[in-house]
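Figure 3 (text version): structure tokens given as input.
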């Protein structure tokens, strides 16, 4: 029988030394039993680097992002202010990615003892519930991705729901959360904060559309989201050109240029509209894959969806959808595909109807909980076969 939590003391010790400036930068990875493996990393050109985290690699090769002590401190302080307190954290995400390592970093700055869930057998509601019961502080936090939260809300046990309700806040990031999932969490009495950010911003830096204290947001001329302020990374290890392309200084503010499109309301609330590269030109019509994905997820019986453009001899690009249905039977898949083709799917009509649909039990995910965009696009391309 596995234990509910794993040993994170060596990782905490190495991180503490790096944050005090007494040791080299730290990069964490997961060992065979799920416990963190510490690698001490030199960061030439970034002498104040404390932590190195890899970007997700959801659309290409991961980049080694250097986070400084000052950036991590600013992020931790702003997070505590937004959550109205410092408390005990449960690590339920892979420690090698920014959302995971930040659980440990925030705990060190707060002086609280974190617990790390045993992920060696994968993420399950039972394992999460057991780990959550290890927490002893009255103020509790954790970070999850949408897929994890959905599994927890669908768990049949009252113990899992009770464990979720005991968290003062659950930071939800890594991928867009559907309105359906957020509503289900609210209805269940679970306090969820939808976060937006990246490894290059020390993780989530916009909570429920509102920038954290010290974080600045602006929209570039082409509509891309620009994130600035004290939480921005120093750059990429061994990637001078990549650093120059992604980061900039303007009037003393350091900015990170994201790959996402967005808009700001009059009161400064950010709405993320989707990726800048998700526009599919099909039959001469420009279609936002993110918009089609959102509309698919609003349909009854759809648990999750991913939409991409694939090569097409007839259309140039064809919309293709990877869809997870609540009913996993072949009959349900056939009925859903027929419903889309008939135009009986709400606003999805004409150019917005995917030409190819692949149903599956779950979306393909990367270890950090983000959708595996490349993997699903490859499968959709193979399904469509260029026609």
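Below: residues designed for each position.
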């Amino acid at each position: 029988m596995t234990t509910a939590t794993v040993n994170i003391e060596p990782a905490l010790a190495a991180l503490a030394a790096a944050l005090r400036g007494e040791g080299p930068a730290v990069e964490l990875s997961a060992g065979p039993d799920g416990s963190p493996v510490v690698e001490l990393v030199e960061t030439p050109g970034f002498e104040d680097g404390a932590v190195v985290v890899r970007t997700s690699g959801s659309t290409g090769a991961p980049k080694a992002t250097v986070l400084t002590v000052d950036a991590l401190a600013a992020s931790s302080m702003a997070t505590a202010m937004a959550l109205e307190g410092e408390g005990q954290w449960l690590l339920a995400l892979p420690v090698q990615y920014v959302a995971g390592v930040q659980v440990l970093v925030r705990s060190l700055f707060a002086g609280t003892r974190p617990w790390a869930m045993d992920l060696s057998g994968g993420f399950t509601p039972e394992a999460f519930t057991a780990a959550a019961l290890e927490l002893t502080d009255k103020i509790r936090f954790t970070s999850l991705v949408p897929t994890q939260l959905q599994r927890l809300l669908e768990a049949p046990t009252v113990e899992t729901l009770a464990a979720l309700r005991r968290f003062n806040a659950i930071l939800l990031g890594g991928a867009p959360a559907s309105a359906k999932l957020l509503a289900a969490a609210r209805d269940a009495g679970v306090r969820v904060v939808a976060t937006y950010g990246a490894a290059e911003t020390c993780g989530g830096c916009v909570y429920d559309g509102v920038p954290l204290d010290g974080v600045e947001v602006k929209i570039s001329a082409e509509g891309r989201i620009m994130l600035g302020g004290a939480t921005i990374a120093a750059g990429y290890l061994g990637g001078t050109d990549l650093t120059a392309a992604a980061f900039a200084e303007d009037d003393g503010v350091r900015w990170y240029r994201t790959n996402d499109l967005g808009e700001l309301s009059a009161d400064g609330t950010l709405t993320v509209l989707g990726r800048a590269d998700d526009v599919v030109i099909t039959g001469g019509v420009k279609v936002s894959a993110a918009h089609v994905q959102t509309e698919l997820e609003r349909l009854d019986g759809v648990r999750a969806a991913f939409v991409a453009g694939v090569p097409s001899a007839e259309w140039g690009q064809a919309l293709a959808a990877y869809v997870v249905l609540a009913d996993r039977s072949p009959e349900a898949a056939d009925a859903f595909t027929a419903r889309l083709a008939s135009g009986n799917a709400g606003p999805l009509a004409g150019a917005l109807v995917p030409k190819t649909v692949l149903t599956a039990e779950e979306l393909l995910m990367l270890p950090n909980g983000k959708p595996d965009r490349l993997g699903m696009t490859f499968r959709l391309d193979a399904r469509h076969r260029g026609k």
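Residues 278-384 form a domain with the GMP Synthetase; Chain A, domain 3 fold (CATH 3.30.300.30).
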